[in-house]
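Demo today. Your pick:
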Amino acid sequence: MSLLDLNPDELLTTTRSVRKRLDLTRPVPLELVKECINVALQAPTGSNRQTWHWMVITDPKQRAEIGRYYQLAVQTYLGSEGACGTLYPEDPARHAVQKRVGDSVAYLGERMSEVPVLVIPCLDASAAPEYNEAGMWGSIVQAGWSYMLAARARRLASAWTTLHLMYEKEIAELLGIPDGVVQAALLPTAYSIGTDFKPAPRQPLDDVMHLDTW
């Protein structure tokens, strides 16, 4: 499959969590997923340890069970204080965006089991230094993001989700993930419905950038 004609800035600014535009009816070739993971393996890791592992779940029964756990987690999250749809009530425009995000989270919660491929980037943390949490997560998070970028370039879509971690132990048992290996995210992967994604509204640069001092 040819890659989308996107320059680096276009790729970086139009890759984001996609939920309602995941094509749940179209199979995703495993070779395409492997291509994306192979790109992700070029991401940096602490001390170049490369202690990552990638769970790729295509079996319908396993996807259904993971989807069940994910739906339970979504229900808990959306009913909690600080859920995305409740944020920034003092700013009507931003609150409206958050409400849409909450709706899309609920949508994916009901359909996670229908997504053709679920990818869980993992990290063997058994030898990770306790003093450096940032270094540990910095050895897998950017690889997961690279996976999403590679997927976008190949007309696939994904979403960075972590709510399944409420049931990390149960999902580890389901998939046979050994002790000491932590799950960083759950990346539902499907063809995107259309490829015309645009940059999303973000806070102004001057509100978040601090030069030399806060």
About this structure: Residues 92-111 form the longest helix (20 residues). Helices lie at 8-13, 30-40, 60-78, 92-111, 133-137, 141-153, 168-175, 205-208. The two ends are 47 Å apart (CA to CA). DSSP finds eight helices and five strands in the chain.
